[in-house]
Design goal:
mainly beta, eight-stranded mixed beta sheet, 1 helix
Amino acid sequence: DYTLTPDTAVDSAGPMDVTVQWTEGNLEATVTLNVVGEIEITREMVEAGVTDAEIGKVVDIKSGEVTIPEYIIWKGNKYQVVGIGDFAYGSQTSVNVNQEITGIHFPDSVQRIGNNAFSWCKNLTGPLELPAGLTEIGESAFSSCSGLTGALKIPEGVISIGEYAFANCTG
């Protein structure tokens, strides 16, 4: 038998001290665990780049064929990427849009693609492969991405597709 103090994890990412007490032998030890939080990719992250936690290096997620890492380090803490935030790459109009991205590859941990996440990204070309863990596609998420081509396969777990999610995707 043993007791953990605290008995629940913190809500935020970062270090957390846990004390383990063993009732037999009256032993006690404190260990520091690194709590991994969950995060969505934001416009700020796209502009700055993020550190891929697997390789420990900053990766460009702004231009070319972009691969979003499953785990990133952002502002000193480790996170699992669970979404692409509202307006991360796109815009409501053709102004302030990331035109440098030509392809996007998501980790299966992505559950949400936000409103206008990629809207008006006309240089985003080729097929669009959505992640297996996806449950929500926001409003206008890929609207006016006219360079997308090929079959679009919506994963089985998707329960919500926002209005105009694929509007004007003429390719």
